[in-house]
Amino acid sequence: MNSCGFSWCEDPLKPNLKDISLVVKAGEKVAICGEVGSGKSTLLAAMLGEVPRTQGTIQVCGKIAYVSQNAWIQTGTVQENILFGSRMDSQRYQETLARCSLVKDLEMLPYGDDTEIGERGVNLSGGQKQRLQLARALYQDADIYLLDDPFSAVDAHTATSLFNW
Ligand SMILES: Nc1ncnc2c1ncn2[C@@H]1O[C@H](COP(=O)(O)OP(=O)(O)O)[C@@H](O)[C@H]1O
Ligand SMILES: [Mg+2]
């Protein structure tokens, strides 16, 4: 991003973000900190091209996987929610479950990862939904992973484990 401004209401006089210059190179991990309402989610949405740009230039190279702040799941099985249309690769799948600390949770579900969730199935906890979202993103072979507040619904211990993996 080169001197970028973004405004949800497309009004250059009412920017939600202004004068943002940001370069993130391949292989870098960047954490954005700021108080509630400071525009962290807006910054990620801007990278996705969801927020009207009112100044500057932006260039994003590569396939993006995105975990939104509000966890969402589709009606279907746990496995369907993670694969999300991608081909099953057992090793990658198991690794993803481990990395997202989901193994124990799945053992407790009546049919494991074949359990129906969402409207017509079991209700997952907020933390479980969040880790499922993370697994869905991680399973994708993306170049850029945008994670919006991915630890907000999990406890400190789980957050540490997720971070380290
Ligand atoms: N989808 C949206 N549509 C319109 N305005 C939004 C949307 N998301 C965030 N905003 C506005 O952008 C500003 C920054 O919010 P946000 O990016 O959600 O902050 P943070 O993620 O740091 O808490 C707020 O004024 C908020 O009302
Ligand atoms: Mg936010």
Explained architecture:
The protein has two domains: 2-61, no CATH class; 67-164, Rossmann fold (3-Layer(aba) Sandwich). The protein has a three-stranded antiparallel sheet, with helices on one face. It contains six helices and seven strands; from the N terminus they run ββαβββαααβαβα. The longest helix is centred in the C-terminal third of the chain and has 14 residues, at 126-139. The chain starts with a strand and ends with a helix. It is α+β, with helices and mostly antiparallel strands and 165 residues long. Adenosine-5'-diphosphate binds at residues 8, 16, 34, 36-42.
Strand order of the largest sheet: 2-1-3
Number of helices: 6
How far apart are the termini? 29 Å
Question: How many domains, as an integer?
Answer: 2
Our estimate of the beta-strand percent is 15-25%
Percent of residues in helical segments? 25-40%
Largest sheet composition: 3 strands, antiparallel
CATH architecture of the largest domain: 3-Layer(aba) Sandwich
Shape: elongated
Note the run of SSEs as H and E: EEHEEEHHHEHEH
Superfamily (CATH H level) name of the largest domain: P-loop containing nucleotide triphosphate hydrolases
Provide the low-confidence segments as ranges.
none
CATH topology of the largest domain: Rossmann fold
The value of Rg in angstroms is 18 Å
What number is the mean pLDDT?
A: 94
How many β-strand stretches?
A: 7
Structural class: alpha+beta
Q: Quick one: CATH class of the largest domain?
A: Alpha Beta
Small molecules (ligands, ions, cofactors) in the structure: adenosine-5'-diphosphate, magnesium ion
